[in-house]
Specification:
Blueprint: E1 2-9, E2 16-23, E3 30-39, H1 42-48, E4 65-72, E5 84-87, E6 90-92, H2 98-101, E7 113-114, E8 133-137, E9 142-143, H3 150-153, H4 159-169, E10 177-181, H5 185-196, E11 200-205, H6 211-217, E12 221-224, H7 229-233, E13 238-243, H8 251-255, E14 258-266, H9 278-282, E15 287-290, H10 296-309, E16 315-318, H11 323-331, E17 338-342
Parallel strand pairs: 10-11, 10-13, 11-12, 13-14, 14-15, 16-17
Antiparallel strand pairs: 1-2, 3-4, 3-8, 3-17, 4-5, 5-9, 6-7
This protein binds NADP nicotinamide-adenine-dinucleotide phosphate and zinc ion (2 copies).
One zinc ion binds next to helix 2.
Length: 347
């Protein structure tokens, strides 16, 4: 076992405080990563605060991890010490089911092993990236291209892939109108990625306070959802809507914005079920769908795409002792657009 420094929550209501956690010894197929940066995802907050169900505490969260390979196991062929790498939301899956064989490990029929709060193969509860080191199977490690500064790369490992995957699956491309609901961590990446994929991008945010940023990220239109005129003006407008909102929104209003065969994809994961009025789906033969992160191959594809197209997250670097405060700001939608923990401050 390796004892490493981490920040953890002792209970659903606790602050995120320094502690020591155990990482397994580096096995033949494992990579030891020295974590340099860890992004703060709203899922970290939902998980610790119990929004999605009971957890085992203390819990270290964080699934946007950027670092450097520090040691490799005897059978590791893919990675060498010193390489810049990332880890996202999964650290293992069965590898045998149809979905795993199709490169869709996030939909592993037996359930993937999440980077934190999951039962690992050895029976322990996985602990995430708010930490100085992590040990991960070589197949669940991603290469961070040189063109992407490690200090801003971490949010790609969740916010990036979670928006890239549905944009690709539902064909965000030239000639297609895409709306992004909520411009926080996931939302700002959805805007940048949909624009880089060639789609015409509209932001639907609670207010117009971030309009200049949205346009700089590639949106050509920007509307406040607090203004009812937005919904009448945009009725039957979009091919694809990506909803990144972490709370309940009025599905009838947002579904009304889809044109024929349009799809509203929920990536936001509010604690309560979202009521979907079926009559809003009948009109225009609309679909309501969900999407979860992305597979390992697609995550690498996304990282390479971002390097090629100069797509990088907008980040605010914080020290580890500011995590609790940063969480409060995320909860107030006061994030521009992803907090990233400088792990060098964790000593
Ligand atoms: P975030 O940074 O907090 O962004 C959410 C945005 O939603 C906010 O910035 C805000 O945007 C808008 N919003 C928040 N509360 C709202 C409300 N009550 N009504 C309307 N709009 C509201 O969170 P995130 O890290 O991007 O994560 C977003 C959601 O996706 C979370 O629920 C998270 O758990 C989930 N998630 C899912 C997956 C997946 O695989 N499906 C992966 C990662 C995260 P504006 O200020 O622009 O209105
Ligand atoms: Zn996440
Ligand atoms: Zn599987």
């Amino acid at each position: 076992m390796l004892n490493v420094t981490a920040y953890a929550a002792a209970s659903p209501t606790a602050d995120i405080l320094p502690t020591t956690i155990e990482r397994r010894d580096v096995g033949p197929d494992d990579v030891l990563i020295e974590i340099k940066y860890a992004g703060i995802c709203h899922s970290d907050i939902h998980t610790v605060r119990g929004d999605w169900g009971a957890q085992t505490y203390p819990l270290t969260v964080g699934h946007e991890i950027a670092g450097v390979v520090a040691e490799v196991g005897s059978a590791v062929t893919k990675w060498a010490v010193g390489t810049s790498v990332g880890v996202g939301c999964m650290v293992n899956s069965c590898r045998e089911c149809a979905n795993c064989r199709a490169g869709l490990e996030q939909y592993c029929e037996g359930g993937n092993v999440g980077t934190y709060g999951s039962i690992d193969r050895d029976g322990t509860v996985t602990q995430g990236g708010y930490s100085t080191h992590i040990v991960v199977d070589q197949d669940f490690v991603l290469r961070i291209p040189e063109a992407i500064d490690l200090a801003v790369a971490a949010p790609l490992l969740c916010a990036g892939i979670t928006t890239y995957s549905p944009l690709r699956h539902w064909n965000a491309a030239p000639g297609r109108k895409v709306a992004v609901v909520g411009m926080g961590g996931l939302g700002h990446m959805a805007v940048k990625l949909a624009h880089a994929l060639g789609a015409e991008v509209t932001v639907l945010s609670q207010t117009l306070s971030k309009e200049a940023d949205g346009r700089a990220f590639g949106a050509t239109r920007y509307f406040a959802t607090s203004d009812p005129a937005t919904f009448s003006e945009l009725t039957n407008e979009f091919d694809l809507i990506i909803n990144t909102v972490s709370a309940e929104i009025d599905m009838r209003a947002y579904l009304s914005l889809l044109r024929l065969d349009g799809v509203l994809v929920n990536v936001g994961a509010p604690p309560e079920p979202l009521p979907v009025p079926v009559f809003a789906l009948f009109t225009n033969r609309r679909s309501f769908a969900g999407s979860s992160i992305g597979g390992i191959a697609e995550t690498q594809e996304m990282l390479d795409f971002c390097a090629e197209h100069g797509v990088v997250p907008e980040t605010e670097l914080i020290a580890a002792d500011q995590i609790t405060e940063a969480w409060l700001r995320v909860l107030k939608s006061d994030v521009r657009y992803r907090f990233v923990i400088d792990v060098a401050t964790m000593v």
